[in-house]
Write a structure and sequence with these properties.
binds arginine; Argininosuccinate synthetase, chain A, domain 2; Rossmann fold; 5-stranded antiparallel sheet; 5-stranded parallel sheet; 2 domains; elongated
């Protein structure tokens, strides 16, 4: 009996060609596993294509709910955004896929798993490291890292074997990946960072020029850092995210054009569409401003960066991640409330916020009547706050020739 291998199958050219390649090169019994993370595919066609290419079995796993609940929303609560712009849609889906691949491998008694990542990207790292931590005994095969085929070679290889590769594959000059949290687009003319992205690469967002002149204003409800409602209507995560992708996308929100640093050391030009993620990140931040203290906000910002790097770098299934997740969860205890967000011409702007356990106190902040802040205690506070500054200025800075304090004074 040939050994079994479970292939993460997208239905595209690369993974379709990988099926006969795995059979012919290594003699594997190939089991295709397609994971639905909201990537809107015709899964019946995908299934048939895998079988026609020689897979002995096809699994289609619905990962949407888990993706939102255990990956996208916790990343939102953490404020995880890579290099200040990328909400990590692709990166977040990989550990879930690795998990489901390992599950299927266990179910069917496979000794190996395979994926269609190239040797130049981040995704290979995320798959490989994820599989290594969850199924350390499994062998990992990445056909695209091994075969020396160009795209044309792959098409010829597919044609020789009469594989249906779909007309789209041939026409689309870009490499795209999508799930509920966002869409990633790379390659083709985008490889020249000076080229403005052609309008037709976008499929979830309108251009700002074509976005409606009238803004839309919505209210997003959060419970302990997790989005739970829109305009007072409770909904499950998938429905909420889909709704926001649609509405924010219509208003031109969520287009990202950046040059990012891959883990393998390459700088690459990436385009993203993440309308829901960008809107939710803005709303969530506005609610945290109301509910977290200054030092909590400050430390959390640092953790957010570390968290984003960890997700980007494929280290999801680690103790380091568990520790940071525990910290983030703890910070979200009081992040419950509502944020009113105006969606307009490419920008989600929080315009109102309220929280049950808000730290904002009108009585303390107001300049109107009803002010409860004791301004009489301010001078005493400032005396102590400024005490070490005064002592040091007198003892050292004012006595130094060329002291910056003196230069400023002399110039006046
Ligand atoms: N650069 C992004 C990342 O590493 C997106 C990768 C997109 N993958 C793709 N097959 N187009 O997360």
């Amino acid at each position: 009996m040939p050994e079994k291998i479970v292939l993460a199958y997208s239905g595209g050219l690369d993974t379709t060609v990988a099926i006969p390649w795995l059979i012919e090169t290594y003699g594997y019994d190939v089991i295709a596993c397609t994971i639905d993370v909201g990537n809107e595919k015709d899964f019946t066609a995908v299934r048939e294509r895998a079988l026609a290419a020689g897979a002995s079995k096809v699994f289609v796993r619905d990962g949407k709910e888990d993706f939102i609940r255990y990956f996208a929303f916790p990343a939102l609560a953490a404020g995880a955004v890579y290099q200040r712009h990328y909400p990590l849609a692709t990166a977040l889906s990989r550990p879930l896929m690795a998990k489901l691949l390992v599950d299927v491998a266990e179910e069917v008694g496979a000794s190996a798993v395979a994926h269609g990542c190239t040797g130049k990207g981040n995704d290979q790292v995320r798959f490989d490291v994820g599989v290594r931590s969850l199924g350390p005994k499994l062998k990992i095969v990445a056909p695209m890292r091994e075969w020396k085929m160009s795209r044309e070679d792959e098409i010829a290889y597919a044609e020789e074997r009469n594989l249906s590769i779909g007309s789209v594959t041939r026409a689309n000059p870009y490499s795209t990946d999508e799930n509920l949290w966002g869409r990633s687009i790379e390659a083709g003319v985008l490889e020249d960072p000076w080229n403005e992205p052609p309008e037709d690469i976008y499929s979830w967002t309108r251009s700002v020029a074509d976005a409606p002149d009238e803004p839309a204003t919505i209210t997003i409800g959060f419970r302990q850092g997790m989005p739970v409602s829109i305009d007072g209507k409770e909904m499950d995560g998938e429905t909420l995210v889909r709704h926001l992708n649609e509405l924010s996308g219509l208003h031109g929100i969520g287009r990202i054009d950046m040059v990012e640093d891959r883990l393998v050391g390459i700088k690459s030009r990436e385009i993203y569409e993440s309308p829901a993620a960008v809107t939710l990140l803005a709303a969530h931040e506005a609610l945290e401003q109301m509910t977290l203290s200054k030092p909590q906000l400050r430390l959390k910002e640092r953790i957010a960066q570390e968290y984003a790097d960890l997700i980007y770098n494929g280290l999801w299934f680690t103790a380091h991640h568990q520790d940071m997740a525990a910290y983030v969860r703890s910070t979200q205890r009081y992040v419950t409330g509502e944020v009113r967000v105006r969606l307009h011409k490419g920008t989600p702007t929080p315009v109102g916020r309220k929280a049950e356990h808000s730290l904002y106190s009108y009585a303390l902040a107001t300049y109107d009547r009803g002010d409860q802040f004791d301004q009489g205690s301010a001078p005493g506070f400032i005396d102590l706050w400024g005490l070490p500054v005064r002592v040091q200025a007198e003892a050292q800075l004012l006595t130094e020739p060329g002291s910056p304090l003196r230069i400023t004074a002399a110039e006046e």
